């Protein structure tokens, strides 16, 4: 865990410690490409494919406009890093565990919700602004999902076409992408930078406790923080035009107003009119809505990490099932 360093401030307020962990359970010859039968993800909005929308209300248009052409539970104009990972492995996009309508979990499941944190959350979404579905809750949900799919898979029924086979759990790629809001939530409580830094070991201990519960897995730590940091320090060089300015928002120097966020509407002569709209070409913007990355930024991060250059051990996703 020594690779985590607090090195910057993003969006003016968030000291971030995002982490992607890939765990895999299968051990092959060291150079064989892994065959993942599915993906199991835990995380926050950076990998939320519908959990938060299912639990707390659908993210509105123009979320989803670039790729899905409709809102699809992602806080983004298009695909997330987890979607690019799924595509690269030839697997379907992940449905959210919490999404009761139309979900198909044969090739994986997603427990992430926007605003989830690593430390146990004790307050409601309204009170804190952060999801009550913190990492410990997602872990409990995963265990329940694991236990109950085994029971339902024995039954001759529609569930066989909707739930994973028992073998999936030992042949899945497990990804955990979380941590961005742990430090933000402390800052919202008006803690000083030093006080926030002091909480980091506590956060990492909780993270370790949960990850430790998969003792036979092969682990890869992916430093997405460095990649995301590059987006802000080398914006133009990487082909982007805007970094901190919000693509989908309203007002002010940064096109961001916390009370008029992406998708906000107002009534004009009895009609709902979109006030916080998206910029013309999100593909050259990094900051989608003031909190989340554009599809273009997510694609950049995926391209950087897929080969293993930011991983410890430094192996590509396709070889991450091997233990080192
Ligand atoms: C951080 O929290 C804010 C709400 O305070 C939320 O909109 C955002 O999605 C969260 N970010 C992540 C990465 O979960
Ligand atoms: C669920 O998805 C799998 C893989 O894409 C597919 O084979 C299966 O038929 C789907 N189930 C249903 C009920 O559509
Ligand atoms: C933090 O400080 C601001 C400005 O002084 C104040 O408005 C806000 O209520 C404080 N927040 C908390 C959680 O104490």
Describe this protein with a few key phrases.
324 residues, alpha/beta, two-stranded antiparallel ribbon, 8 strands, 27% helix, globular, disordered N terminus, binds 2-acetamido-2-deoxy-beta-D-glucopyranose, glycoprotein, signal, hydrolase activity, acting on ester bonds
Structure description:
This protein has helices spanning 51-56, 81-88, 125-128, 135-153, 180-188, 193-211, 224-233, 295-305, and strands at 19-24, 38-43, 108-110, 172-178, 218-222, 265-268, 271-274, 311-312. It is an alpha/beta fold. It has one domain. The strands form two sheets. It has a six-stranded mixed sheet with strand order 3-2-4-1-5-8, with helices on one face. Helix 5 packs antiparallel against helix 6 (193-211). One 2-acetamido-2-deoxy-beta-D-glucopyranose binds at residues 189-190.
How are the secondary structure elements laid out?
Layout lengths: L18 E6 L13 E6 L7 H6 L24 H8 L19 E3 L14 H4 L6 H19 L18 E7 L1 H9 L4 H19 L6 E5 L1 H10 L31 E4 L2 E4 L20 H11 L5 E2 L12
The chain binds 2-acetamido-2-deoxy-beta-D-glucopyranose (3 copies).
One 2-acetamido-2-deoxy-beta-D-glucopyranose (NAG) binds next to loops.
Offer a quick outline of the entry.
With 324 residues, the protein is of the alpha/beta class. It has one domain.
Oligomer: single chain
Uncertain ranges: 1-18
* Total count of helical runs of at least 4 residues: 8
What share of the residues lie within helices?
25-40%
Order of helices and strands: EEHHEHHEHHEHEEHE
Strand order of the largest sheet: 3-2-4-1-5-8
Q: What is the number of domains?
A: 1
InterPro entries: GDSL, SGNH_hydro_sf
Signal peptide: 1-29
Family: Belongs to the 'GDSL' lipolytic enzyme family.
GO molecular function, one term: hydrolase activity, acting on ester bonds
